[in-house]
Amino acid sequence: MPNRMLTAAERDLAQSLLNRLRADLEDLSSGNPDLLFAYRRKIYKELTYDERGTPAMHKALKRAKYQEQLGLCAICRNPLPERYAVLDRFEAAKGYTVENIRLIHSNCDITTQAERRYA
Ligand SMILES: [Zn+2]
Fold first, then answer.
1. How confident is the model at residue 113 (pLDDT cuts 50, 70, 90)?
2. 26 in the same domain as 73
């Protein structure tokens, strides 16, 4: 299923929110570039976790999927490396849950992403 896209009106609302957030970050940091960097990085990290989950969660999911798939890539069925395998979501908006992911090779992920884009 393709990811939900924003309408033009929704993109305008998102841009307004982003503009307010940037202004708030400028106020919070009072012209201190190091503090602005730290606030920006904190917000970025937390929003990324909201969408993708925490690194600890990913590690646990990878371990569970590796065992469930008997160490084999869900696409090509060849053995997966112990590190650098990719968690692939069937539907991005459903997040990283055991039911919505599979563990695959990085190269198989690149091929799959390209196919999804051209489908
Ligand atoms: Zn593979």
1. confident
2. no
